[in-house]
Amino acid sequence: MKAKWELGVGLFGLLLLIWSHYTGLFVAPPEAMMGDVGRILYAHVPTAWVGLLTYLVAFIAAVGAIWTGRWAWDAMVEASVEVGLLLNVLLLVQGSLWAKPTWGVYWTWDPRLTTCAIMVVAFGVVLTLRRQIDDPMRRLTLSSVATIIAFVNVPIVYLSVKWWRTLHQPYSSPDTVDGSMVTPLRVAAFGMLFLATGFVVRRWRQVNTRLAIEVQAPDLPEEPKPLHVEESK
Amino acid sequence: MSATLRVLQKDLLIEWRSRSRTVALLSFAYTILLIFAFAVGPDSAALKLHAGAYLWLGLLLSSTLLLDRTMRIEFEAGAMEKLMLVPVPATGIFYGKAVANLIQLCIVGAFSVPLVFIVCDATMVEPFGWLAATVFLGAAGLAAPGTMYSAMIARLSGKQLLLPLMLFPLVVPVIVAAVKATSLTMLGDPMNQIGSWLTLLACFNLVYWSLCGVLFGRVVEA
Amino acid sequence: MTGMIEGGWEFVWSVYGITWAGLALYAWHLYRHEKAS
């Protein structure tokens, strides 16, 4: 791999993640109410934060793409939606596996998990759309519009599901984190952030290259050699 | 503004002239309702409890047919390109089409509501005005994003599956709010919550009727 | 809530396992595309 700055950042993030996960799994104390199951925190919460952040980056890139029409922004939309999708699918799986021992079921209509499930489809559709459209400019416009709307919709969906839920029963979620757990959690968050940054930037470079090739005008044919006519004597 | 009205007039005229297709759409809505009743079973208590859900599921599914159709006619025979050549602002086109879709969805809604009452043996506890407002606001919530997405997809040949995929995650708040409000009108609203759900619907409509109007121009230019 | 949940390590391992697998898979996906370009 070419050595660029994101490789270093990504590896550093990886190290932070390894350290924080190790600490969280084997060194930190078990959580007060959830016991050892609470250790899922160190994987789940950073994924949630960085996942949402990645979608924010996608939104900004989509606005930039529509505003300027430049391919670099379009490439960033694709890269960040892709990584965002990875993180949020992981989030759903993690959340589901956390729900089973704590709430007894793999799925509850927890507003955050429900919103995440809906958003996975919304952003997944952006990627599907990109694959279906051949014309680069149209692809830029349509996928950016879809991304903008998907992102704007996140708080609306969250609020409506939250309202919908509270009418049935209140849900509990770990909001306060004990002191000895804060450090590995913070480190894990930064670790995930740096790793995701490495992923997004590297993917951005790849997509950028691909787009550049795609929108290049075809080369002009070589100039024909001047005709050499022999004079006949 | 006049451009909007012209487009609206044109669309409604087209729909009026192809009334048979509207009949087909209404039949579709009716069939869905029947299928739900059969799937749920003859448990009249369950049907009564979830009548609101069935109404909106029927409307949502019918909307995909409607939206796809109303936009496809624009792209057949290059009609959209010709429309863009006329100095009509794209926003005007959007609002004209979106309002036309809204009116048609309200018609489907108006048709479906009595059906739901009959099939699910529903009652009307709260005043009818609330139900009418819910159907209108819910239909509006489907019409605006639906119009824009159908424009985005219409030119991708054979990609009709994308419309429900794109639309459904977006309109989850509409469905949640509309079903809850409808159920409350049918089953009673002791804590006066209908107002809050309608407010959510109104806010959603405010956001998306403006946002889609702004973005529509870019979408059809592409 | 009566007391602390006991055990549940299989869930913890599954979560971490799947998380790391997902990240590794994406890194491999990036690597594959790097080779191609």
Task: Tell me about this structure.
The complex is a heterotrimer of chains A (233), B (222) and C (37). In chain A, helix 2 runs parallel beside helix 6 (179-215). Helix content of chain A is 75%, strand content 0%. With 233 residues, chain A is an all-alpha fold. The relative contact order of chain A is 0.19. Chain A is built from 6 helices and no strands. With 222 residues, chain B is mostly helical. The two termini of chain B are 24 Å apart. In chain B, 45% of the residues are buried. Chain C has 37 residues and is mostly helical.
Core attributes:
heterotrimer, A: 233 residues, mainly alpha, elongated, B: 222 residues, 10 helices, globular
The coarse overall form of chain B would be globular
SS strand fraction of chain A: under 5%
Instruction: Report the principal-axis shape of chain A.
Output: elongated
What structural category characterises the helix and strand content of chain B? mainly alpha
Question: How many individual helices of chain B?
Answer: 10
Number of domains of chain A: 1
Largest sheet geometry of chain A: none
Please give the count of helices of chain A: 6
Sheet with most strands of chain B: none
Based on CA atoms alone, the radius of gyration of chain A comes out at 24 Å
Report the end-to-end length of chain B measured between terminal Cα atoms.
24 Å
Largest interface: A-B, 30 and 29 residues
End-to-end CA span of chain A: 64 Å
Q: Roughly what percent helix of chain B?
A: over 70%
Mean pLDDT reading of chain A? 86
Question: How helix-rich are the residues of chain A, as a percent range?
Answer: over 70%
Strand share of the residues of chain B? under 5%
